[in-house]
Amino acid sequence: MNIIIKDGLPIVALKIRIGHQSTLLSNVLLDTGCAASVFDTDELKKIGLPLDYTAGQAVRMYGIGGQSEWCYEQTIPSIFINMHEFKELKLQLGPIKSIYGFDGIIGNDIIMKIGMVIDFRQLKISGIPS
C-alpha cells in the first residue's frame, strides 16, 4: 500500500467492505498518535452501515490541544479493510469529513491488529493485503 504525503500528513486509500457492499476511501489519515480509528458516518452509510443507537454509544474523540468532538462508537460484526477481515471491531463513526476533511483516520487499534509496517522513506506500508 502506498502513502501519499498531503500537507505534511500521511494519507492512504482503503477499500472498505461490509457484507456485499464496498467503497473506496481515498483520503484516509494514517495516524500513529491516535488510539482508535474513526470513519466518516456518511461514507460508511453508503455501504449500509447506519449508526446503531441500541448497541453503540456516544463518546468523545480528543485531538491535539484537548479539543473534542462527539462521535458514535459501535462494534461492527464483520468488516473488511482492503483484504483483511476484522470480526467484532469497535469503530468510532462521526462527521470527520466535514470537520477535518478526511474519509477516515486509521489509528493504532487497526495498525497493531494488522501488524502494519510503515516505511516513510519508501512511502509504503507492508503487512496489509491490498
UniProtKB/TrEMBL annotation:
Query: What highest taxon heads this organism's lineage?
Result: Bacteria
Q: Name one Pfam family in it.
A: RVP
Keyword Hydrolase in record: yes
Domain Retropepsins, residue spans: 14-118
Keywords for this protein = Hydrolase
Q: Where is the signal peptide?
A: none
UniProt keyword Hydrolase present: yes
**Protein name according to UniProt:** Retropepsins domain-containing protein
Upper taxonomic classification of the species? Bacteria, Bacillati, Bacillota, Bacilli, Bacillales
